[in-house]
């Protein structure tokens, strides 16, 4: 590739606390909503008794092994690392007046370690988890009281880590609540539209309050939103399919519209009317929403198709039900591979918001098996990353402002949707199986060295996608 990525482009990887840390009750941490979503129960609240096992209780034990893992990230050449803070480490129940000092001290150590290697932290405030107590006692984000609890949490970590962290995200994939409300908002699956959209409104207000607090407390920092970028194509050129795809895409773009523009888009008025939703939106809420994000971040894994008049096979995933595209290949888990779609999404978002964009999740979940020499030759992952990053380069040449790219799971971690270790994303292999058994020894995959060279070349060694 003759194109070279900008010198200030941020290269790295992305993780979530509940998928890597383990140590789920250590040093005063409270239970989170993720702690009651064990194997295959993504989006469901499961009762938990003393002694019950969840693979995320151990995960990959990043809580204790972070120096080793961050050293590997530095060896890769990372200039940034996206991680999340576990809210229930800082406020174990969520509604306390004072934070848990042991939880705060843990992340001090993480940020100090990253600083040692010159790696910029990109920190998500809430990534698919919240204190379980808030879901059980307050009905999750359905309660307006959570706005104040979240603002207290945000201000606490801004004040504590402001010297170390200059890039923040509010809610991971905030639009996930449309598909899995318990995972995204602590609201039970099957809740009515009124409850869901009221809860999502409270999240949007809380996000805006966090943005305002960040701007006040950390004037030299940047804070963005984060969406699941799941674009839908029309299955045919029939006008009804074109319109249906537009409506489907508005469902997730709505969250960006509010967070980037500072008000509800006009098209939502009809949707709320047709759903029978009457939101409790105060004048104070409207004023708060005017505090908009500095940049837009998103995940990108796959695209789908929608049709109003033709039968389209539905890929029934844990979080998304996307229509199959006959022109695309799929992963081991049936996710469609569409590198060109990433360029489309980048152009779509930049045209819509004219704000810097950050790709904070993109990666391939696959079954990785060591060969007879014990090596993991994951050429399929290299091809996936190459083809997607090539399209990022194309988007940069289109004039899109892209801040950086963090591949999802630079190290093997517990899959969010399936709670499996066997669904591997990493450039670094972790010896653990789906029952949490293994040595947890880390091993570099072939993709590790490829990504290392990619960063060194500033993207120049990318090759055109294969047909």
UniProtKB/TrEMBL annotation:
Transmembrane segments: none
Active-site residues (renumbered): 361
Record SUPFAM superfamilies: (Trans)glycosidases
Signal peptide: none
Highest taxon in the source lineage: Bacteria
GO cellular component, as recorded: cytosol
PANTHER family given in the database record: 6-PHOSPHO-BETA-GLUCOSIDASE ASCB-RELATED (PTHR10353:SF122), GLYCOSYL HYDROLASE (PTHR10353)
Listed name of the protein: 6-phospho-beta-glucosidase
Organism the protein comes from: Psychromonas ingrahamii (strain DSM 17664 / CCUG 51855 / 37)
Lineage: Bacteria, Pseudomonadati, Pseudomonadota, Gammaproteobacteria, Alteromonadales
């Amino acid at each position: 590739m003759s194109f070279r990525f900008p010198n200030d482009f941020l290269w790295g990887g992305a993780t979530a606390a509940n998928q890597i840390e383990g140590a789920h009750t250590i040093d005063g941490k409270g239970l989170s909503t993720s702690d009651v979503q064990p194997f295959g129960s993504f989006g469901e609240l499961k009762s938990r008794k003393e002694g019950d096992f969840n693979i995320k209780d151990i995960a990959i034990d990043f809580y204790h092994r972070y120096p080793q893992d961050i050293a590997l990230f530095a060896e890769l050449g990372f200039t940034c690392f996206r991680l999340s803070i576990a809210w229930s480490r800082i406020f174990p129940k969520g509604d306390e007046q004072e934070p848990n000092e042991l939880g705060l001290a843990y992340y001090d150590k993480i940020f100090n370690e990253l600083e040692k290697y010159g790696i910029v932290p990109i920190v998500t405030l809430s990534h698919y988890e919240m204190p379980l107590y808030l879901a059980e006692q307050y009905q999750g984000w359905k309660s307006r009281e959570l706005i104040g609890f979240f603002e207290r949490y945000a201000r606490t970590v801004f004040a504590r880590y402001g010297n170390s962290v200059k890039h923040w995200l509010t809610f991971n994939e905030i639009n996930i609540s449309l598909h899995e409300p318990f995972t995204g908002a602590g609201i039970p699956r099957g809740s009515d539209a009124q409850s869901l959209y009221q809860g999502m409104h409270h999240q949007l207000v809380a996000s805006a309050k966090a943005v305002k607090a960040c701007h006040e407390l950390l004037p030299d920092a940047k804070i963005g939103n984060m969406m699941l970028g799941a674009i839908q194509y029309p299955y045919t050129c029939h006008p009804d399919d074109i319109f249906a795809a537009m409506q489907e895409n508005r469902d997730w773009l709505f969250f960006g519209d509010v967070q980037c523009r500072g008000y509800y888009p006009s098209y939502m008025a009809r949707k709320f009317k047709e759903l029978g939703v009457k939101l409790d939106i105060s004048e104070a809420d409207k004023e708060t929403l005017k505090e908009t994000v500095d940049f837009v971040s998103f995940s990108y894994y796959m695209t789908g198709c929608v049709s109003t008049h033709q039968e389209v096979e539905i890929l029934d995933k844990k979080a998304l039900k996307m229509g199959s595209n006959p022109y695309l290949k799929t992963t081991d888990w049936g996710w469609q591979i569409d590198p060109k779609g990433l360029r489309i999404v980048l152009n779509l978002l930049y045209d819509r918001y004219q704000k810097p964009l950050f790709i904070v999740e993109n990666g391939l979940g696959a079954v990785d098996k060591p060969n007879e020499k014990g090596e993991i030759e994951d050429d399929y992952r290299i091809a996936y990353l190459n083809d997607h990053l090539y399209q990022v380069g194309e988007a940069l040449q289109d004039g899109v402002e892209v801040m950086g790219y963090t591949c999802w799971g630079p190290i093997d971690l517990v899959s969010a949707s399936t709670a499996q270790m066997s669904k591997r994303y990493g450039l670094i292999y972790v010896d653990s199986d789906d029952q949490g058994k293994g040595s947890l020894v880390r091993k570099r995959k072939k993709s590790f060295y490829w990504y290392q060279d990619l960063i060194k070349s500033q993207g120049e060694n990318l090759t055109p996608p294969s047909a």
